[in-house]
Amino acid sequence: MGGKFVIRFEEMYAKLTxxxxxxxxxxxxxxxxxxxxxxxxxxxxxxxxPPYTFVATVNAVxxxxxxPVFADIDLETFQMDPKRVEPALTDRTTAIIPVHMAGTxxxxxxxxxxxxxxxxxxxxxxxxxxxxxxxxxxxxxxxxAGCFSFQGSKNLNSGEGGAxxxxxxxxxxxxxxxxxxxxxxxxxxxxxGYQHNGANLRLTEFQGALLISQMSRLEEQSKRxxxxxxxxxxxxxxxxxxxxxxxxxxxxxxxxxxxxFRYDKAAFAGAPRSSFLxxxxxxxxxxxxxxxxxxKEPFIQNxxxxxxxxxxxxxxxxxxxxxxxxxxxxxxLCTEAVWFTQTMLLGTRADMEQIVEAVKKVQAQAHTxxx
Length: 371
Ligand SMILES: *Cc1c(COP(=O)(O)O)cnc(C)c1O
Known about the structure:
By secondary structure, the protein is an alpha/beta fold.
């Protein structure tokens, strides 16, 4: 139902990514909810997600009345570990959502192969991964659907906004209908005869116009992040105790929405990560500790204990959920990770050198940090 700006943006983003279809929606969370509906994921289903992601990935699943099942991450890449996906599948699994964390592709070869073999569709959460590539192809186009966010912190943004990519005509129809109160894309705004239920998750014309304009700088900024991140990695890999996230074999471009590494306090005189973060900030380098273990958040237990979920799932599956969803690698990652934001990678080469100088200075003085 978009006006000319939204439709123009959809065409531009589909062309840029090589997707057959792009549907603009209100935000990234809406994109995930829309894609889940588009693939007929419903109440009583199970959906596989990684624990190292923004809470919206899990919220979207729960808002469909489906049960999130966590597949642990790989400690070297910070991405969903495909080896943990297969054991998490059950006869109720109706989608797998790999997240391209920090804008670096998750292992799409392995995850889409499992999806094909077990006939479970893959929805890519590419909300951080604009222009990222897997074997030269844009992410968001390798699963049955790909979801993007254009929220203010993202590499392409209109304050709020989102999109679903798909190469499947039927999925597009259903996603379109869902995001537009059940109207049909083909027959239009019929006053009756609705075939499908939906919500209003439309992008506005104003946001569409902003995105068209923001697209003009996306590639140039992405190139700068590529160069700066590569330079930063070449220097930081030399620093003992700093382990930048590795790319899964097959990733050919990252969006560098975040720059992530693991901090080993043993190489910093035992100084805890919180002291490292504080010292870096004092050197003028802002950084954060990133996500907390999502599978242990109280909201999940609260929903699993709700009347509705008790009607949808067996007592045994709800009771055993916490133990079955342990993610020890993620627990460890959440204590070791350090993040820089994408905007820091838009600086100069000299800025990257200053970041590394700060890390080295903090390391040299680490014995004074302890406490
Ligand atoms: C930002 C983000 C979302 C949600 O996008 P919104 O536009 O904020 O709703 C979902 N998943 C991931 C991984 C994100 O980073």
